[in-house]
Give the backbone structure.
Amino acid sequence: HSPAQRSTCEQAAILTVLGASGYDALVPGASELSLDPAWLAREAARAGVPLIAANVLDRTSGEPAFAPYRLVTRNGLAISVIGLVELPYEREWYEGVERSILDQYRIEDALDAVERCLARMPPVDVCLVAGTILPETASKLLAWSGRGPDIVLSSTYRFARVARADERHVE
């Protein structure tokens, strides 16, 4: 079955492995957002995996559903990881899932969310934006030159891990 149809048992196992592996952040995607929000928060906390998404709001309260970003330090470098969620509706395995997601969450404009984060964050050496980011958004973010992110990672798996950093290299 598709990632959007994972069971809670499978998702709990994935979160446990990510936590044990030392992941610094997880940007929730369709499989996580389609779960009960209270269950997701509880299991992510239990596994020690911080959930981040700057542009996802709780549909009812209008409050941020997750922390917008995470600050980490590696080899003396201050690194920010900003999470973004954009749902690629054209993918067939999102059919029906986006309705359950949009019943629970409101997805804000990704560029506006990054602007807010950049305005509120302390200065960092490296700014990374990660998540399910559409190509046109990634292109715009990288074109911000000097005021935007240094790295944009868009992945089907939505994992952001800053494992090692030096003056020229961030994994």
Notes: The chain has six helices and eight strands. The first helix runs from residue 8 to 21.
